[in-house]
Amino acid sequence: LDWYILDGMSHRPLPATAHVVLGLASIRPTTGHELAAFSERSIGNFFPIARSQIYLELERLCRLGLLEVTEIAQERRPTKRVYEITRSGGDELRRWLDETPLEPERTRNLFLVRVFFGDRVSPDRLERTLDEYEALARTQCDRLTAVVERLDGRPEAALRRATALFGVRHAQATLDWAAEIRPIVQAARSARSGPG
Amino acid sequence: LDWYILDGMSHRPLPATAHVVLGLASIRPTTGHELAAFSERSIGNFFPIARSQIYLELERLCRLGLLEVTEIAQERRPTKRVYEITRSGGDELRRWLDETPLEPERTRNLFLVRVFFGDRVSPDRLERTLDEYEALARTQCDRLTAVVERLDGRPEAALRRATALFGVRHAQATLDWAAEIRPIVQAARSARSGPG
DNA sequence: TTTGACATGTAAGCCGTTACATGATTTA
DNA sequence: TAAATCATGTAACGGCTTACATGTCAAA
What we know:
DNA-binding, 196 residues, mainly alpha, homodimer, two-stranded antiparallel sheet, 2 strands
């Protein structure tokens, strides 16, 4: 059942994912395949969407009249479905960006769960977990720093650059924090392996 | 159907949520109500769990023999169900902490989506969004700083303190980043409202 | 010859949230 | 008298992930 289409007042708001797909499709007419690839290397850094989900959302947005689809037959390839944003789609996107209040996000971090229960594993194991997380942060930091540098000096990309910079700063915060708490983890290790 | 109990090899691993509930219940025997409250103010800062989900997980962990339940009749209150971790529950918890590999977490941030699509709203609106996010970060920072200070000088709480410190450092990173990109947002505003 | 890009989907099913449902006791 | 605490759950449902399914073409 499609509540969204049966009821003009739309009690149940579209999920954020739908609006993000709408936003991506608003940049230029695009296929699901193409949109998935673009999503993955741009907004996917802070709002990943499964490929299969993208196809579902594109279809739903069509049913709602927020996107229009044009089938384009191709030689030697499956028929493309090119989605383009409609007037009402543009309205809905702007309305969503403008009116939806920001809520504090309660995001899950399994690494911190490991730290929380850190005394249930060996001190060595805990330190290895910290090493791993540090390595992930370093990789992330390098990757996003490259993105930031690529967008340097391109005024029209300033906001996209800002989102990448956010990731860089947070990765750096993780690295600083890891250095800060490492002594604690190491103290636990030497306490057990030391002269007792 | 309960795949977990029908198949000793347990193809489908228990979700992280179940393990976190198991971990919380391992601290001391507790009721669902009590565990939910404790979860909310401790691990909930980086791994929130809905209260209703906690009741479901406690039941499942019982069916799997990882927890044991004791019903305690009370005067003037509903019968309590006190859950206590079993030997095999302790084993499973340690196994999970020890063996489950850390994966890079792709967490969603709707604020960054707003920044990404920042040129679709008015410069004023974008700056207000930045203001809001900054305020949230400041609140978060203050709240977690208080937690860190409360745990200062308590060696047995060093790891819990570390998880709170992680939140503090990240909130600070957000505040620094906000200050860093504010000029960009303001430039967009003056560009439109300025002499043109 | 094999990998990767192009191209689109369906099926299954747990996870998790929100709302609902109930009721006594204590405190402000 | 209203709100907070204690205390336990069910119902409904969408969201999202994982796996499955299929096939061509170009490049290494």
